[in-house]
Design a protein that fits this description.
This protein is α/β, with parallel strands linked by helices and 363 residues long. The protein contains 15 helices and 14 strands. Helix 7 crosses helix 8. It starts with 8 loop residues before the first strand and ends with a helix. It binds adenosine-5'-diphosphate and magnesium ion (MG).
Amino acid sequence: MGDPAFGGIAVRNLYKIFGPNAGAHVDAVRNGMTKTELNAVHGHVLGLRDINIEIASGSIQVIMGLSGSGKSTLIRHINRLIDPTAGEVLVDGVDVVKMGAADLRTFRRHQTAMVFQKFALLPHRSVLDNTMFGLEIQGIERGKSRDIAMRWLERVGLKGFESKYPNQLSGGMQQRVGLARALSNDAPVLLMDEAYSALDPLIRMDMQSVLLDIQAEIRKTIVFITHDLDEALRLGDQIAILRDGEVIQQGTSQDIVLRPADDYVASFVREVNRGRVVHVEAVMTPLRTPSASGHLPGGRTIAADVTIEEALRMLVGTPDDEATVVDATAKPVGTVSFRQLAGAMVNAHDIGQQAGESRANVA
Ligand SMILES: Nc1ncnc2c1ncn2[C@@H]1O[C@H](COP(=O)(O)OP(=O)(O)O)[C@@H](O)[C@H]1O
Ligand SMILES: [Mg+2]
């Protein structure tokens, strides 16, 4: 644990076709045959088409898309629960696709851990014994396994529950056990397939906070699947959006919300509370030449990566109508007014445009 260079993932030119003669159809798919055509003409299902994703070690990569878009198919390639029809899946530079049976077993046990939507807890084992399960399989001595499991149970907020059984716990608590079990493995790669999708909204947000808290400490490479954009935006350092087995957009939350690649992404984004996602940077009036003398006289400063909602909260109830926006080095990069911020909240889809206009006004 702790080596930040550990656990980077690269998915390259990955194709998955389901059907008895999959390999024979890769070229047709490469040459543009659609999922519908492949199914109609050859009776095969296109699972994934030409997926390319680089996941930095220690980051959270969210994969998002509607049901049937290929999310589970994709994540299952990372620990090779599914064999690709073509392509590479590199973890720490090693192609998982080319591993022999023994290497694959070692890889799965030591390099990856999974958290499932349905928790997959063993009903006749206590919380502690469920948490220790992976360590047991690894052949780790019981006393040591127990210490590790107890530490993670405490970390996910389940201290005192270790001798309970799964059916004595709520869904949220069972998912905490699932997370503690996965973390006990101390694998550099954590795979979470709709892990929170069955939880009630408030419990779900709780679990997101638990994950973010722990991640700040352990810096695993996490692949997190969800069909919920709010969850994606909250958790993802990077987000990839899938449709019909293809990645149609990859980027940060800012990229996705401010510049949706097409109508499909835009339809997800429409429901988002942008005040909580979009940074002040996107709505400010940029300084023509960033300089140390760009402060408004006597005014307050706001960091460029603060959300619109937070910035409004900072200005509300103060005499200031405008603030200086500063970058991470405290250098002024722009100004933002109460009106600009409020306008961006109300007239959400004009944010990019507004920023463009302000820039034009300055020039
Ligand atoms: N074993 C399989 N055989 C045939 N088709 C499959 C199989 N697994 C998945 N698919 C198909 O691949 C597509 C992607 O499925 P999946 O990865 O489960 O989507 P998601 O997780 O985004 O809901 C769907 O069209 C699904 O029907
Ligand atoms: Mg799925």
